[in-house]
Specification:
- By secondary structure, this protein is α/β, with parallel strands linked by helices.
- It folds into 5 domains: 2-150, no CATH class; 163-173 and 334-416, no CATH class; 179-329, Rossmann fold (3-Layer(aba) Sandwich), CATH 3.40.50.300; 420-502, Arc Repressor Mutant, subunit A; 737-868.
- The protein is built from 30 helices and 25 strands.
- Strands 9-10-11-12-13-14-15-16-17-18-19-20-21-23-25 form a 15-stranded parallel sheet, sandwiched between helices.
- It is globular, with a radius of gyration of 29 Å.
Length: 868
């Protein structure tokens, strides 16, 4: 586990030293030698951790090396901070002096020598190398060499297991193994002709599939067509009723502003909004009866068949949730179901020959029918050859049998099997609240900002997305929602989250504060490197009273303090500030510009009216996200932030200089002034572009300048008055996959399959098309999602011909004038989701009756996520 931290710090240390080597002149060889020593240390660490087991000596030795790595990071970051204060020229002249000062500080930390008499930077580097050698020598002094030999065989086998890991398909994620009888019984109960509202309680052990079963019911076409309102909320152990009510209301997709309402006002609002409607609400992961008791007053007894589903691990909670409760104990998987699940998670490998079948069945039997255990085991075994399967059984699996908690050991085993570059990425998931829906684009940008993704010739976000998929393939992350083939949100099972938190605490990776249940378990406040705050003024008081010189990351989920950004300026080494849930006006202080290490600044949903010029001093900034109801006034010379990769906010009504921002990947949403005055051809890495266009001088919006963006993947253009010109220039953007246009379009190109060959998502709104768009759109070879929204088509009939829309999966229609939808026999063969806004004029084809309906709230959420 420590190898992940050492790998991260060594990579950063090596990069810093190599970059500065040009100014070290005669000691370049010494710098490279130090980097090589650190790389050898990493190799030794990785091997030693395999042999660690429960040996306290090895554990202590590895912890010592971890502290050395952290000290190196502190030295480098402090050096860069002071160098920035002294100015670039002075920094270069004084580099050797500074290195001497701080490497001397590192040495003195462990040796006790206050000021070693070192006369050159080469001597200082040698002193650091000496400290590493002394650490290795200490291992021999206390007999760790013998331990090394004792476990040599098993270490090699484990190493072999790690090297054989490959990425596997996750295409079977949507098919649920087992639960057929449970589903049919509960579905009948949900749909039975009983007007009274009642609760269905699903209970079972952790990892048994309660949430999976509830989701299967929730997304059933029979359920979505029966209930007029549907909502899902996760409760978990630490909950706040006011927060739960807000999340339920948002899940119902009521559009009213509710942020300032009190708990009682929220209950009255929800009660009034559900009056007269049949509703289904899922209350997931309930630990105490008080949770539903506190909520149910907000749900009216409409006597129209409304239902509530509760999932819980506690039988008492299941039986005493409501006066009318149907209790369903979720059984574990049968032997045949367990075997089927393992075969799927190993991509059929378990059934390849008799030997693997025997090994697989022996191991899956130990899982006791627990789905999570089987899924994790399958992720561990996936793509392994028979000899690796035997090793897992003979040297690891047998040890789990004697444990009283085999699932925890199995989860830990799967974590230990991760390559070191994936370990920190997995552990980072632990800072999200329990049952939280994790936005993948946010997670990826955080991984990049934290330095967990290597810098090479590849785009770091692409590498991060590949890491995400590998964690999914290993069943350590669950896919939650997808759109057009991309993972939009994901989740982590609470048992895996507990594992991540436990391991993160051992590494001092992050600490969590929650006022409801304070989980900030750390030995020293001053040593915190990443602070996560769920809620509570107590956390704010701690930040206010404490000066933490080492804090690198501050992530706040719910903390109402206007002065929080001023407090942030105390922490000079901050790399990440995420204040995405502060729902009032924030003032960005000038002093924020002194945080030169800051890479990630998100002030989403807060009201920011002015961004000071000092923000241009944030030379390391990669993500600046200020999406809110206001249009923040930005410094014009934003192009000075050369490392900026993602710039997101409502920047209408102002001009931004973005010339030469070659690292920029996301730019949303700019005014047409910025578009017309910028040579977009220079933005060679731009992938996502959002434009708010209104120009009284120009008659129409032209795509000619956008055609210069060769790597563009996502484009959203919102016109206020001007119509669109021809879409033909977009043929130069061959990578374009996501297109959303709001504005008048005279006619779609007939050769859409040539203009946009890779388009997989298309949304049109207020296009006022006169001709049927289907003949042009049905030719798009990769289109999977089509959303024809408000007034995008003015006709009364749509015709989808045979062999049209061959890959379309989701169809959204919100066309008030539409009266007839004709779909020929061979059209839309892959359609799995349909949403048509209620319109008494429209006659829906009979062949669509069997297609699951997408609820209206899902369509709105899909559009909302598009805007983000």
């Amino acid at each position: 586990m420590v190898d992940a931290v050492v790998s991260y710090v060594v990579s950063k240390l090596g990069d810093y030293l190599i970059q500065e080597a040009a100014f070290l002149r005669g000691v370049k060889n010494e710098v490279e030698s130090l980097k090589k020593d650190l790389e050898w240390m990493l190799c030794f660490i990785s091997d030693a951790e395999d042999k660690q087991f429960d040996n306290s000596l090895i554990h202590q030795w590895i912890s010592d090396i971890r502290e050395i790595a952290y000290d190196c990071e502190d030295v480098l970051d402090t050096f860069m901070l002071q160098a920035q204060d002294e100015g670039t020229a002075k920094r270069r002249r004084g580099f050797s002096t500074f290195i001497k000062k701080y490497y001397s500080w590192i040495v003195s930390k462990t040796t006790g020598h206050k000021k070693p008499n070192l006369h050159s930077i080469g001597k200082e580097i040698e002193a650091l190398k000496k400290r590493l050698r002394e650490t290795f020598d200490r291992s021999k002094m206390y007999g760790l060499k013998a331990i090394d030999n004792k476990w040599e065989g098993e270490s090699k086998a484990l190493h072999k297991l790690k090297q054989l890991r490959k990425t596997t398909s996750f295409a079977l994620e949507n098919r649920v193994v087992g639960f057929e009888d449970d589903t049919s019984k509960l579905l009948a109960k949900l749909l039975e002709d009983d007007p009274r509202r009642f609760v269905i309680s699903i209970w079972g052990t952790g990892g048994s599939g309660k949430t999976t079963l509830a989701r299967k019911l929730y997304h059933s076409s029979q359920v979505t067509s029966k209930f007029q309102r549907c909502a899902w909320v996760s409760v978990s152990q630490d909950f706040n009723i006011e927060d739960l009510l807000r999340r339920i209301i948002k899940s119902f997709n009521f559009t009213e502003t509710i942020e300032k309402l009190s708990e009682e006002e929220l209950k009255r609002f929800l009660y009034k909004s559900l009056q007269g409607y049949s509703y289904l609400v899922v209350v997931d992961d309930v630990w105490e009866t008080i949770a539903w008791e506190s909520l149910k007053i907000a749900f009216p007894e409409n006597n129209n068949g409304s239902r509530v589903i509760i999932t819980t691990r506690n039988k008492f909670v299941a039986e005493h949730s409501d006066e009318r409760t149907h209790v369903h104990e979720l059984r574990l998987l049968r032997e045949d179901e367990s075997w089927e699940l393992l075969c799927e998670k190993t991509s059929g490998k378990a059934n390849e020959d008799e030997e693997m079948r025997k090994l697989g069945k022996e191991m899956v039997q130990k899982c006791g029918g627990l789905p999570l255990a089987i899924v994790v085991l399958g992720g561990l075994l996936s793509t392994k050859r028979p000899e690796e399967w035997r090793f897992v059984r003979d040297h690891i699996w047998l040890n789990l049998c004697s444990s009283s908690t085999p699932i925890q050991n199995l989860l830990a085993l799967s974590f230990n099997d991760l390559p070191c570059q994936l370990k920190l990425c997995f552990l980072y998931l632990g800072h999200y609240p329990e049952d939280n829906e994790i936005l993948t684009w946010q997670l990826i940008r955080l991984w990049v900002a934290e330095g967990f993704i290597p810098q090479n010739e590849e785009i770091m976000e692409d590498v991060a997305y590949r890491y995400l998929n590998e964690l999914i393939d290993r069943s350590l992350i669950q896919i939650d929602k997808t759109r057009a083939g991309r993972i939009v949100t994901c989740r982590v099972h609470d048992l895996l989250r507990d594992l991540a938190i436990q391991k993160a605490e051992e590494l001092n990776l992050f600490h969590i504060y929650n006022e409801i249940k304070d989980s900030a378990r750390c030995s020293s406040k001053s040593s915190r490197r990443r602070q996560v705050i769920y809620s509570g003024t107590g956390a704010y008081s701690q930040l206010l009273d404490h000066h933490n010189s080492l804090l690198r990351s501050l992530i706040i989920f719910n903390l109402g303090q206007r002065e929080i950004l001023t407090i942030c300026t105390r922490f000079k080494l901050l790399r990440v500030i995420n204040l995405s849930s502060i729902l009032f006006e924030l003032i960005i202080p000038e002093e924020l510009g002194k945080l030169i290490h800051l890479k990630y600044l998100v002030l989403r949903y807060s009201e920011v009216k002015y961004v000071p010029e000092s923000i241009l001093n944030l030379v390391s900034l990669q993500t600046l996200d200020i999406v809110s109801g206001t249009c923040p006034q930005m410094p014009t010379e934003i192009c000075k932030l050369q490392k900026l990769r993602h710039l997101i906010g409502n920047f209408s009504g102002q001009y931004l200089r973005i010339d030469n921002m070659t690292n920029l990947q996301t730019l949303k949403y700019i005014e047409n002034k910025t578009l017309t005055k910028t040579n977009l051809e220079k933005l060679i890495n731009l992938r996502e572009l959002g434009i708010l266009y209104h120009d009284e001088e120009e008659k129409e919006f032209s795509f000619n300048s956008i055609a210069k963006l060769k790597n563009l993947r996502s484009l959203l253009v919102h016109l206020l008055d001007n119509p669109f010109a021809s879409l033909q220039p977009l043929s130069h953007c061959q990578d374009l996959m996501h297109l959303s246009l709001c504005g008048r379009i005279e006619k779609l190109p007939e050769n859409m399959q040539i203009v946009l060959p890779n388009l997989d998502y298309l949304r049109l709104e207020f296009s006022y098309l006169v001709e049927d768009p289907m003949p042009a759109l049905e030719k798009l070879p990769n289109l999977t999602v089509l959303h024809l929204a408000n007034s995008s088509y003015c006709g009364e009939k749509l015709v989808c011909r045979d062999n049209g829309f061959l890959r379309l999966q989701s169809l959204y229609l919100n066309l008030r004038e539409l009266e007839e939808l004709h779909i020929e026999e061979g059209a839309m063969p892959m359609l799995t989701g349909l949403s048509i806004v209620k319109n008494c004029k429209l006659r829906i084809p009979e062949r669509l009756f069997s297609v699951p309906c997408l609820a209206e709230w899902e369509c709105r959420r899909d559009f909302f996520e598009e805007l983000l």
